[in-house]
Amino acid sequence: MRWYLRSKIHDATVTESELNYIGSITIDSSLTEKAGFNENEKVAIWDKTNGQRIETYIILGEKNSGVICINGAAAKKIKKGDKVIIAGFELSDKPVKSKTVLVDKKNRFIKYLDKNFKNIKGNYGM
Fold first, then answer.
1. Is 118 within the bounds of a domain?
2. What amino acid positions are annotated as catalytic residues?
3. Under a CB-based contact definition with an 8 Å cutoff, are residues 115 and 101 in contact?
4. Tally of domains in the chain
5. Which of 120, 54, 48 is nearest to 83 (CA)?
6. C-beta separation of 105 from 13 below 8 A
7. What is the pLDDT of residue 119?
8. Residue 90's domain spans which residues?
């Protein structure tokens, strides 16, 4: 068995950072649906702005709100306005076909990215 990337939300913008919360990340439920994430699922968060990397679990946010809120102690590392990648993994004995959800500056779904990322440099074809 190996861990494979199952899906990720790419280039999301952190909309809130709540230090005085138990923990987790709140994600717009329309994005969790597109990515195939579930509530309480463990995810990795990679901060493109400052290089920080954390693991936490998902709380579903209001649908179509664009919310990406870092909760708890992680709010000391990942701040409002930071650009992040949110990744989920799957343990499998066979390779898993992953999907990448690209969002705009307001965390609205744009498209699924081609797995080869052809012609994608900086602006992601927008």
1. no
2. 24, 57
3. no
4. 1
5. 48
6. yes
7. 44
8. 2-105
Specify if 32 maps to a domain.
yes
Q: What is the pLDDT of residues 4-59, one digit of tens each?
A: 999 999 999 999 999 999 879 999 999 999 999 999 999 999 999 999 999 999 99
Residue 25 makes CB contacts below 8 A (sequence gap 6+) with 43, 45, 56, 57, 58, 59, 68, 69, 70, 71, 74, 86
Query: What CATH number is given to the structural domain containing 93?
Result: 2.40.40.20
In a domain, 121, yes or no: no
Q: What is the mean pLDDT of the chain?
A: 92
Distance CA 86, CA 125 (A): 20
> How far is it, in rounded angstroms, from Cα 109 to Cα 100?
11
Residue entry with tokens 């390779």: 95
> What confidence category does residue 60 fall into, taking pLDDT thresholds of 50, 70 and 90?
very high
| Residue 84 contacts residue 5 (beta carbons within 8 Å) | no
pTM of the model: 0.90
Decide if 99 contacts 114 (C-beta within 8 A): no
